[in-house]
Automatic annotation (TrEMBL):
Residues 63-318 form the ZP domain. Its main location: secreted. GO terms for biological process: binding of sperm to zona pellucida; egg coat formation; positive regulation of acrosome reaction. PROSITE patterns: ZP_2 (PS51034). It is found in: Secreted, Extracellular space, Extracellular matrix; Zona pellucida; Cell membrane. Proteolytically cleaved before the transmembrane segment to yield the secreted ectodomain incorporated in the zona pellucida. It comes from Erpetoichthys calabaricus (Rope fish). Component of the zona pellucida, an extracellular matrix surrounding oocytes which mediates sperm binding, induction of the acrosome reaction and prevents post-fertilization polyspermy. The zona pellucida is composed of 3 to 4 glycoproteins, ZP1, ZP2, ZP3, and ZP4. ZP3 is essential for sperm binding and zona matrix formation. This is Zona pellucida sperm-binding protein 3. It is a single-pass type I membrane protein.
Length: 428
């Protein structure tokens, strides 16, 4: 009897162990399915002969996801048996986020850490620069390695956004519009000067304000509020200029003292209008410009915060102001608004059962408008007016001088005639 009970106990324990193993495997498979999709990554080796291994697949590797790029660096970065220090490695000012005895890791958000974005044929490419700047050996004023630079690229299909959702249509001249699973329709349009409708021309002059209107169609949806998270101008090559960044900070007015701004107040929560002071890329032959903006929405009932805002720098007041009235959310515009917060959200996402308030992927879209053609501005009418104004006083003066000469000539003639015809007086 005791033996029978022991056998039953062993069988039950075996069944329970088998169940645990299978459930663990299933959960592991389910979790792996939630991992972000991986996209094409390119690491360009350093061209320095003395550091020919720097940036090679053996020393640097990268993994691009829809959210960020994860760069793994071998401590023997240069391949010369002199390990580098973690503090000497940065990507656009962002340092090492984790490390092991055999690797350093830097996680950089796609729209952060000095990234640049451009369109190449049918791809959207994010560029990052890994910088190695050796610090002196502790206690000694010397170094045993040279600086190195490694270029990293993340390639995404242009007929997809970085969240892997299809864009339809991908490209419409001057206007870009997509639908998000037939639920949300995002739009980015170049507007005419009085905001009454789309611009009929794609030609602008230096000194003009380019009117852009971002909107979302949320028909049959709960009320939403739209934000412009990031905007980058490109000339179609690797030359780019970010004029809206840091999660909704209109940096152009702060950096250049321009008149660029978000329009206050909003005409609707689902619409955000903004003006960009026209510019050209220095030293570039072409004057065409493409504008790529990342739009996102939140519930209209949700309070704005550091990651969801629209802030303009007012040069005259030397301060940041919010379109939605809560200026305190703009206080991070001179630093990094995403520091710590995005990472906490991502960590919470990876923990089973952890509730976290985040923006659904389909509520964020990247749109492109262009090309816009920028030309130098001429004012022929003003030049003619100035010429006429300058010539008028000269003509009046000559007329006056001529008149005076005529009067003087007549006076002299009369006086001479008087002297000639006057009879002399004979005295007795």
């Amino acid at each position: 009897m005791g033996c029978k009970a022991a056998c039953q106990l062993l069988i039950a324990f075996g069944v329970f162990q088998f169940y645990c193993v299978e459930v663990s495997a299933a959960v592991g498979y389910w979790r792996s399915g939630l991992r972000s999709k991986v996209y094409k990554a390119i690491v360009t080796p350093s061209e320095t002969l003395a550091q020919q291994r720097a940036g090679s697949p053996e020393t640097v590797s990268a993994q691009c996801t829809e959210w960020d790029v994860m760069v793994t660096i071998n401590p023997d970065l240069l391949g010369i048996q002199h390990p580098v220090q973690a503090s000497d490695l940065t990507i656009g000012g962002c340092g090492v986020t984790s490390q092991t005895p055999t690797a350093f890791v830097i996680e950089a958000p796609l729209q952060g850490c000095g990234s640049n974005v451009t369109m190449v044929s049918d791809e959207i490419v994010y560029y990052f620069t890994l910088d190695y700047n050796p610090s002196p050996i502790p206690g000694l004023p010397i170094v045993r390695t040279n600086p190195a630079v490694v270029q990293i690229e993340c390639h995404y299909p242009r007929n997809h956004n970085v969240s892997s959702n299809a864009l339809n249509p991908t490209w419409v001249p001057y206007t870009s519009t997509i639908s998000a699973q037939d639920v949300l329709g995002f739009s980015l349009v170049i507007m005419n000067s009085d905001w009454s409708g789309p611009s009929s021309s794609n030609i602008f002059y230096l000194g003009d304000l380019i009117n852009l209107q971002a909107s979302v169609d949320s028909t049959n949806h709960v009320p939403l509020q739209l934000f412009v998270d990031n905007c980058v101008a490109s000339d179609g090559s690797a030359t780019t200029y970010t004029f809206v960044g840091n999660n909704g900070c209109f940096t152009d007015s702060k950096v250049t003292g321009s008149n660029s701004q978000f329009i206050t107040p909003r005409i609707a929560p689902s619409i955000l209008q903004f003006e960009l002071d026209a510019f050209r890329f220095y030293g570039v032959a072409t004057s065409s410009v493409f504008i790529t903006c990342r739009l996102k929405v939140t519930l209209a009932s949700q309070a704005i915060d550091n990651l969801n805002k629209a802030c303009t720098y007012i040069t005259g007041l030397s301060q940041w102001t919010s379109v939605d009235g809560s200026n305190q959310v703009c206080s991070c515009c001179d630093a990094s608004c995403a520091t710590g917060q995005k990472r906490r959200i991502e960590m919470a996402r990876r923990r089973p059962g952890r509730s976290v308030k985040t923006t659904p992927v389909e509520w964020e879209k990247t749109l492109v408008v262009g090309p816009l053609f920028l030309e130098g501005k001429h004012h022929p009418a003003v030049s003619e007016h100035l010429t006429a104004t300058e010539e008028k006083p000269a003509g009046s003066f000559m007329l006056f001088l001529g008149s005076m000469l005529v009067v003087l000539a007549l006076t002299c003639s009369a006086f001479l005639l008087y002297l000639l015809y006057q009879k002399p007086q004979i005295s007795n």
